[in-house]
Amino acid sequence: MVITIIEMLDQIKTGESKFLVEAQLQVLKMKKIWTPEGNLYVDLVLRDITGTYPHFRSKIEDDIELAKFKVGNVLQVRGEYNRDLDGVLITGTEKLEVYDLTKFVKIPEIDAKDLFSRIEKVIDEMENLWLKQLLEVIFRDEVVKNKFIDCPSAVKYHHAYLHGNLEHTVGMLMAFKNYYLDFYGKNGTKFDVDLVNAGIILQDIGKIYEYEINNGVPLYVKKYALIGHLVLGSELVAKKISAIPDFPEDLELKIKHIILSHHGKKEWGSPVEPGFPEAHVVHSLDLMDSRLRSL
Ligand SMILES: [Fe+2]
Ligand SMILES: [Fe+2]
User: Fold this and answer.
1) Closest ligand to 199 CA?
2) How confident is the model at residue 181 (pLDDT cuts 50, 70, 90)?
3) Residue 168 Cα, ligand 2 centroid: separation in angstroms?
4) Would you say the pTM of this structure is higher than 0.90?
5) What integer is the mean pLDDT of 130-152?
6) Residue 154 Cα to ligand 2 middle (Å)
7) Which residues of the chain does CATH 2.40.50.140 include?
8) Does the domain spanning 5-103 belong to CATH 2.40.50.140?
């Protein structure tokens, strides 16, 4: 009989020393463990919507079996709880292809279409035709656009869920518009408004490479995490600009600077620190939106 995590925890509480476990669970964390004899095991944190249990272990015979335990995968799990081991030793697994994801993960209610249309509106209203063209070229690329819409903004801390980075980006745009522009107005500001808006839209675009999302669980893409989303974003922009003849060099440098400086400090991962007002504005909004959403 298939049991849930909460039912399994209740059974553990009864003090039974051993019992069989059969459950459908999602992989939340996976860590490889090598024994001194050279055997490979994985320690697993598995969950369903009723709870999370961090003490599963499985022996791994080959790479195909290891791939089953990719973070985010949903598995049919058989094993035995052992009080002496204080955990469940898995004896068999099967990767499920058909399941109801809401039984494993809470999916936040985000209207991604509405959020992306707000970004499109900001782009439509841009007066700087170079920046407008750059953003149109970037989002005309369906692969980039779809990844941008789905991308989480982190693995933990803030916006660590499907569409999280879209929500973060629109949060920054709306904060700039509603908090700043509606009060001071375009003429009362010393900032280049289009440059701030383009900077907001592009500051985290490198995350489309740095993160992926598997069944609602965000994870790092190892090879791109070696570079990081600031440099990845700057490289993406450089590539797209190279397809726009005569794009002004000073504008290219400014937009790259905003992306590379948006974390504000070198110790926070920025290779350069904000060097002009628009870069300071984008950094401040990034900090505010990410902090408010991680409270
Ligand atoms: Fe960032
Ligand atoms: Fe950000």
Assistant:
1) 2
2) confident
3) 7
4) no
5) 97
6) 9
7) 5-103
8) yes
